[in-house]
Give the backbone structure.
Amino acid sequence: MTATLLRTAADLHARARTGRRAVVMTMGALHEGHATLIRTARKIAGPEGEVVVTVFVNPLQFGAGEDLDRYPRTLDADVELAGRSGADAVFAPSVDEVYPGGEPQVRISAGTMGERLEGAARPGHFDGMLTVVAKLLHLTRPDVALYGHKDAQQLALIRRMVRDLNFGVEIVGVPTVREEDGLALSSRNRYLSSAERRTALALSQALFAGRDRHAAQEALRARAREVPATRARAEALSAIGESRAAADAHAVATTAGGPAAVRAAARLVLDEAARLDPPLRLDYLALVDPSDFTEIGDGFTGEAVLAVAARVGATRLIDNIPLTFGPFGDAS
């Protein structure tokens, strides 16, 4: 499938529409993570619908000293990958097309949620991101727009903007795509040297350590709950040779776990990576409520996000995974 390259909103609006339009917004330098978004969009739009991929490096969301000038720009390859993945069109406007009067005087504010984590590390980033997303939603006029879970805070803010400001569009999140070794796909991965890439693996390894710690804790708690804490329990476990394992399970089940244990397991990996050559320089590790990106407490129940951001060499990377804390801390 060949995607049509469009440079202006007028050209996009001139296209006939017979079904649902699904839009995937990108800053280009497309990779398999973007391809997954496009393929998902194709399924949602169906054979009668249309998939539009936007490629626009938004200057408003880059702060002073960030990598706006060196951000990879690979439009020809992007158009080819987009078409191969199922896109009908690639909308790649110029800065003047998106901001015809220069930088906009009126912008979208991300509010307090936009000041946490990524917002604290990159002041103004989310205001710029939401402003361009709002503009691109107006310019592309989609029925549905798709974004990756890897940018979890971005996705949460877009969903909040669409709800709070009554945008008539459905927002769909698509799970993070990873390399075989666990590294989350990112356009910035190409900046990493081989040594830096080895260090960068600590981001996903830390998340997996937190997830595994949570799963192990809950498995032991579930095991300890299977038999009441009575003499009959001890006798039953002893009869099958598990008295020591039961004691271990009971000890773990009654000691500190939950969010604190998840954070500790992840931080251990990150602390070790800080001693590598080259070292990992941590920006933040957080276990948050995805509704507002505040840190969760030990009694929290529901969906949570374990998120990390760090620098390796000159490259800044982010990653996250979802976790579920049930009434007894049930893991998923």
Notes: Confidence is low (pLDDT under 50) at residues 251-255, 328-332.
